[in-house]
Amino acid sequence: QVQLVESGGGLVQPGGSQRLSCAASGFTFSNYVMSWYRQAPGKEREFVALISGAGDVTNYPGSVKGRFTISRDNAKNTLYLQMSSLKPEDTAVYYCKRWDLAYWGQGTQVTVSS
């Protein structure tokens, strides 16, 4: 069955960087568009980034564009999110998701604070 396991979260200072990883299993990873979402306390879950199966097409909302980079290693069945110039408002639980599937992993907490 599909399994997505996020890791790499933690406490980071404003202006800092963090890289998240998502290990995927249970499906042919390279065949699917993958994405990252996040959910801050008391807020709706929001889209953060998307990447095509081959990794050649990406998309970001304005809130993270230019600061976050989504990538993937299809040989390792792993999705990444490189985050830089982090702001306190980036604090949230981050989730990876197969674009077409209503399945969520456990997420990884990112806290941006001094």
Q: Give the helix level as a range of percent.
A: under 10%
Structural class: mainly beta
Number of helices: 0
How many E strands? 10
Strand order of the largest sheet: 2-10-9-4-5-6
Q: Return residue spans where pLDDT drops below 50 for at least 5 consecutive residues.
A: none
Taking the sheet with the most strands, its summary is:
6 strands, mixed
Apparent shape: globular
- Proportion in β-strands: over 45%
Pattern of helices and strands: EEEEEEEEEE
Radius of gyration: 13 Å
Integer average pLDDT: 97
Termini separation comes to: 40 Å
Description:
This protein has strands spanning 3-7, 10-12, 18-25, 34-39, 46-51, 58-59, 68-73, 78-83, 92-98, 108-112. With 114 residues, it is mainly β.
Can you summarize this structure?
The chain is mainly β and 114 residues long. Helices cover 0% and strands 47% of the residues. The termini are far apart.
Keywords:
four-stranded antiparallel sheet; globular; mainly beta; six-stranded mixed sheet; 47% strand; 114 residues; 10 strands
Secondary structure: elements and pairs:
Elements: E1 3-7, E2 10-12, E3 18-25, E4 34-39, E5 46-51, E6 58-59, E7 68-73, E8 78-83, E9 92-98, E10 108-112
Parallel strand pairs: 2-10
Antiparallel strand pairs: 1-3, 3-8, 4-5, 4-9, 5-6, 7-8, 9-10
